[in-house]
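Q: I'm writing a short explainer about AraC-like DNA-binding protein for a general audience and would like to include a description of its predicted shape. Could you first generate the structure from this sequence?
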Amino acid sequence: MSVSSDAGQGPSAPPASEPPTTDRAPTADVSPKSGLHPPIVSRFTTTIPDEGSALVRAAYADNRLRVQGQADDFRFRQSRRDLGSLRIDSFHNSLVTEYDVEPLGCLVVCRVLDRHMDIWTDGRHRRVGPGDVVLLAHPEKAYSTRLEGAGLEIVGVDLDLLAEVTDEPVRDVVDRFHLETFEPLMAWHWKRTLHHLTDVVLSDDRLSENPVVLGTSARLVAATLITALDPAGVTPTPTDRTDATNTTVQRAVAYVEEHCDADITVTDIARAAHVSVRALQLAFRRHLDTTPTGYLRRVRLDRAHDDLLAADPASGTSVTDIAMSWGFLNVGRFSAQYRSVHGVPPRWTLHH
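A: Of course. Here's the predicted structure. Afterward I'll give you a sentence or two in plain language.
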């Protein structure tokens, strides 16, 4: 790694950096399949370009940093929520900075918060601005960026996590990913999905350490990424239509009933039914007029109903406790869904 600056730093830059800080370490792997764990939160700030480059190297890949302007005015700030196979960074720097980054081996999606960023991948130039969401590069491709003092939200997604939401070889899926800026609607969905994960799930220790909640939320990010970058991949094939039988539904239902308390995915259900995810989704629509995740939610609502009936309110058990144990992180939404199915609010069931 080398670091250079268009303006001299002077013989002795002041030690104005703050060492990385970590808020919490993981207590256990909550989803071994995808390598997820409870969030590790870290923060780092510096005014020294060498340290900023070292941080980028440690967080992403080997890189070369160039700073344009007075290096004394350089400011770098990064915070990270590391979930293992999913990482969410907030990144801010001053001045005009350029990075040459080696292949990352994972997917990195960037949302520009302010200013502009230029990206070069395979000789192709892209310029993105506030609100834009873009895939920086394919996992095996190097890229370069030029930031005009920009603020960024950067999300790293490992291929193992992506593999949990597709039944195709993950490399085949990724090879179809385009490098265009997300369409406005998909950019909105991406922002909303990240907001749900960061501001709802990761802000509550009970949720972020619940394997069902964390696994489901992380896979929603991966599924949103596939939908945005490979829309043609969700179209059923003739084989999918042939496989969308009642037998497929029966196999899937049996698997869901047996494993509804585990962190199972749509891909798990499809494999148990011996069909593709697209065939599974089509079969549930055709024969049950719902989706596999909708059916899983209904089964978990029924199990929560059983737990509410069996619980003793005098022991301190609450509706929230039972809802979260079955992966329902929004208690208000759980109550509405429960009432639509069972005709009474969950609190009534618990106390009667």
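A: For your explainer, you could say: The radius of gyration is 23 Å.
Q: Perfect, that's easy to follow.
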